[in-house]
Amino acid sequence: MNSQGFCWRISKRGRAPIEAQVRGRKVNLKELIDQYGVDVESPVRIPELELGDFRAYRVRADIGADIYLLDSKPARELAAWPHVVGSELDARCSECAFQAAAIMSRLGLLEGQACVLHVLRAGLGYRLREAISKAGVETRDLYVRPEYIVTSARDHRGESVKEVRVTFADFSNAPRGTKVTLFKPDTEATGRTGLVSLMRALDELERKGTKVEKLVLYGFITRVAAGRIAEKAISEGVKEVTVIALVDLADLASNDYDMVLYGPDLHAWATQREFKPLGATVGLETFADILPHYVPGLDQPGDFSERQSKLFNGIGWEEGDIAGHLRSAIEAIETLLTIPNIEDWQREIAVDELERLRETLKSVTGETV
User: Fold this and answer.
1) Nearest 5 degrees, angle CA 167-CA 169-CA 171?
2) How far apart are CA 172 and CA 194, in angstroms?
């Protein structure tokens, strides 16, 4: 992914894009940012953290955590292209993980004893464990699988209530009587499964006399989840929380699932015909680079578990439902295309990705959609 088709104009603030040329059309970035409430003011570029072909931003936010954004070509491709699955996903995740490890090293997060909390089944796919191990970090692997369980309770609308419960855990490799940095690579939408997983890990480590001094979150993460998890971790005595999010701090859609860069809330449109704009916290240069490729309103990680070829469930390995992920992305784009006030250039981006998704689905299953 590159910035082909993007035309830079120089604003008075320096080298910042204020106008895009997307598919032969001029796009006013300020108007687009204002329309969807995209936050490009909070991120500040930190060149001293950059090593190689990626950008690093620090997000100015008062949530008790240090928040950084990792922007790179493979990260943007993961976020913008749901047709990237299987081995292509693995390759991009590995590249991003090594870039994240470089940032972590410069932040002093790769010193001392480390534990990696693998949240099953998606977490292993971020490939962070391999990256920090190759950087020379001594790591211990911890495993937990949180799942949503339908209970007998009902909410005020009469709908079944879902609770997050841990259905598998393995902390047999946890160190005893020491202080550690806990790395937690995972997708964080609402933060509910993240909180349950974190609390289980803190409890298990405490039983072994081990204290988590630093917590590092990594992956696709929303603003809501970052705040919730950081607040809880600090209240539990963790001294330092660092968040390194891929591309942006996403906005969370009304279904508490879709993690959106910018665009309409597709769930709100599908269920209520409500046009509800969403906008992430993202670096301005990042937004400019990803704009010609990202389908507005689309969930960036998609079903991150099912995008993977192989998934560890705690007992053994199983195949990811790649076809299911692709069908969900196709359905989401088809919903977007029913919205009348989508711009022509946005519609063209959506149609192009729809075609790639259908081609990928056919190659996986032989199915034509």
Assistant:
1) 170
2) 20
